[in-house]
Design brief:
Helix content is 18%, strand content 38%. The strands form 6 sheets. Strands 3-2-1-4-5 form a 5-stranded antiparallel beta sheet. It has a 5-stranded antiparallel beta sheet with strand order 8-7-6-9-10. The chain has 6 domains: 25-109, Nucleic acid-binding proteins (OB fold (Dihydrolipoamide Acetyltransferase, E2P)); 110-180, Beta Barrel (OB fold (Dihydrolipoamide Acetyltransferase, E2P)), CATH 2.40.50.140; 194-267, OB fold (Dihydrolipoamide Acetyltransferase, E2P), CATH 2.40.50.140; 271-350, Nucleic acid-binding proteins (OB fold (Dihydrolipoamide Acetyltransferase, E2P), Beta Barrel), CATH 2.40.50.140; 358-437, OB fold (Dihydrolipoamide Acetyltransferase, E2P) (Beta Barrel); 446-539, Nucleic acid-binding proteins (OB fold (Dihydrolipoamide Acetyltransferase, E2P), Beta Barrel). It has 559 residues and is of the alpha+beta class. α8 (523-538) crosses α9. The chain has helices at 2-19, 91-108, 176-192, 275-278, 358-365, 407-410, 447-451, 523-538, 547-558; strands at 27-37, 40-46, 49-54, 72-79, 88-90, 112-121, 124-128, 133-137, 156-165, 170-174, 199-207, 211-215, 220-224, 245-254, 259-263, 284-292, 296-302, 305-310, 332-341, 346-350, 371-380, 383-388, 392-397, 419-428, 433-437, 458-467, 470-475, 478-483, 504-513, 518-522. The longest helix is centred in the N-terminal third of the chain and has 18 residues, at 2-19. β22 and β23 form a beta hairpin. The protein starts with a helix and ends with a helix.
Length: 559
């Protein structure tokens, strides 16, 4: 009976032992630290199983292991028994499983999680999120690029989970999102306390080509280069340096974009308020060339007041020349105020007006009729351009080169660089023109001849050439042409061939063209005039006397 009872009890105990489930591999189990030796913690996980865990698995990044004998801990059971009969366990894997559960809930709720950067990898950093390792891209470390992440290493701080995949074991976090959110709140608070026109102090945070960013206590404002000073500022670094504390005025606030425009010059007196009083039109001032363009040069009259010398107002004589060939940057020049537009903040200046008009000076030094000498600067189809005192040019027209021959032929004798003498014929200061004459230096060889001849005179000429249309004749060296119709009163006698070169012929002067140096001659006009005179002296042909009788009487009377 006793034997039967003991067997029954044994079976019952055996069944109970079978009913107790042995922990499954790959799960988290509870255990107790029973000893620490050789850098390892020996942990009793129950079920008559013990395992070992390296002490470093109990340490947070950058900290010492925190574990003592008697501590209750959770570990991950990887294998129930190894070759030494011990359970293969891991504290790190247990923490990871626990962390993933916690992080998944935080990700779903879009909550922040705490972690510490502990390593650097390609493209970013590794972050310990309390057992799970996440990747922090370099672009998500801060709102601005971080050159040295050393101060951030091992520091516990909040992160935002951007992406996670438990199956692949990937977690991507962002520190920048936290900072931007905090920054946005701070910006909104600071901007809410600012108003346009307010004067505040700020610290120069960054300097660019176009301006400077000023920290107003959690929010940045842009101080554009054109709002730094009334004068021209080529680069903000001329008047500002990073870290400098400055006073600025809030010019504009954009509540939607949180952009703030600042100004420094608005805190100074506007020099344009007194520009008309200081620089009246027609006054001459000393200035400094600040900028040169294709259309002119800007000259600073005083800090904040710049005027433009247009290219057309730079020189009396240098036309179509780039302003850079007349003045240079930083050069001190004397200018005249030509026009002021205070509303548009423009001042028109003149450089050439500070010097006398060279055409006026020339007209005084060389009045019309005086002789002048110069160098041939250019030769054109219509005349010569001669360089004159005062760096100006005068022109000798083709018709003013010589008395003899054609001007087109005479101009071929000249070359650039030749020195020539000429007489001043006309000076037009307004049109900046000077007319010269080379032939006027000599008397017109035919002037006396023309001066002694008047219309209606009868003169004797010599036939020099016979042509189909008439005859060429010469009078004291001056040549004229008598057309066929003017050779005789009678049409039958209007034949050029009845004349021979060398014949002497009496002709009547019908016109005197002094400027063209020409005489209009006619045999026909002489004959008609003689007939008229004879009729008036000896009677009308209507009385019965023939023309031959009258002319005969006239001829006899002459004898």
């Amino acid at each position: 009976m006793a034997s039967g009872t003991s067997m029954a009890e044994f079976e019952e105990l055996l069944n109970e032992s079978f009913e107790i489930d042995t922990p499954s591999e790959g799960t988290v189990v509870k255990g107790k630290v029973i000893a620490i030796e050789a850098g390892q913690a020996i942990i009793d996980v129950g079920y008559k199983m013990e395992g070992r865990v390296d002490l470093k698995e109990f340490a947070q990044p950058g900290e010492q292991p925190n574990v003592n004998v008697g501590d209750d801990v959770e570990v991950f059971l990887r294998n129930v028994e190894n070759a030494r009969g011990e359970a293969v366990i891991s504290r790190e894997m247990a923490k990871r499983e626990e962390a993933w559960d916690r992080l998944e809930k935080a990700y779903e709720r879009e909550e922040r999680v705490e972690g510490a950067i502990f390593g650097r990898v390609k493209g970013g950093f590794t972050v310990d999120l309390g057992g799970a390792v996440a990747f922090l891209p370099g672009s998500q470390v801060d709102v601005r690029p971080v050159r040295d992440a050393g101060p951030l290493m091992g520091l516990k701080q909040p992160f935002q989970i951007l992406k996670m995949d438990r199956r692949r074991g990937n977690i991507v976090v962002s520190r920048r999102a936290i900072l931007e959110e905090s920054r946005a709140e701070q910006r909104a608070e600071v901007i809410g306390n600012l108003y346009e026109g307010q004067v505040v102090e700020g610290v120069v945070k960054n300097i660019t080509e176009y301006g400077a960013f000023v920290d107003l206590g959690g929010v940045d404002g842009l101080l554009h280069v054109t709002d730094m000073a009334w004068r021209r500022v080529n680069h903000p670094s001329e008047i500002l340096s990073i870290g400098e504390t400055i006073k600025v005025q809030v010019i504009k606030i954009n509540k939607e974009t949180h952009r703030i425009s600042l100004g420094m010059k608005q805190l100074q007196e506007d020099p344009w308020d007194t520009v008309e009083r200081k620089f009246p039109i027609g006054s001459v001032h000393q200035g400094r060339v600040t900028n040169i363009t294709d259309y002119g040069a800007f000259v600073e009259l005083e800090p904040g007041i710049e005027g433009l010398v247009h290219v057309s107002e730079m020189s009396w004589t240098k036309k179509n020349v780039h302003p850079g060939k007349i003045v240079s940057t930083s050069q001190e020049v004397e200018v005249m105020v030509l026009e002021i537009d205070s509303q548009k903040r423009r001042v028109s200046l003149g450089l050439k007006q500070t010097q006398r008009n060279p055409w006026e000076v020339f007209a005084e030094q060389f009045p019309e009729g005086s002789a002048v000498e110069g160098e041939v600067k250019n030769i054109t189809e219509f005349g010569l351009f001669v360089g004159l005192p005062g760096d100006i040019d005068g022109m000798v027209h083709l018709s003013d080169i010589t008395w003899d021959g054609r001007g087109e032929d005479a101009i071929q004798q000249f070359r650039k660089g030749d020195r020539v003498k000429a007489k001043v014929i006309e000076v037009d200061v307004e049109k900046e023109r000077i007319s010269l004459s080379i032939k006027a230096l000599e008397n017109d060889p035919y002037a006396e001849t023309l001066g002694g001849v008047k219309r209606g005179d009868v003169i004797t000429v010599s036939v020099s050439k016979i042509e189909d249309g008439g005859i060429e004749v010469e009078y004291q060296g001056m040549k004229s042409f008598i057309r066929r119709s003017d050779l005789s009163r009678d049409r039958s006698e209007q034949r050029p061939e009845r004349f021979q070169p060398g014949d002497k012929v009496d002709v009547r002067v019908v016109s005197v063209e002094t400027k063209a140096r020409k005489l209009g001659l006619s045999i026909k006009a002489r004959e008609i005039a003689e007939e008229k005179e004879a009729v008036e002296q000896y009677g009308s042909s209507d009385s019965g006397a023939s023309l031959g009788d009258i002319l005969g009487a006239a001829l006899r009377g002459e004898r």
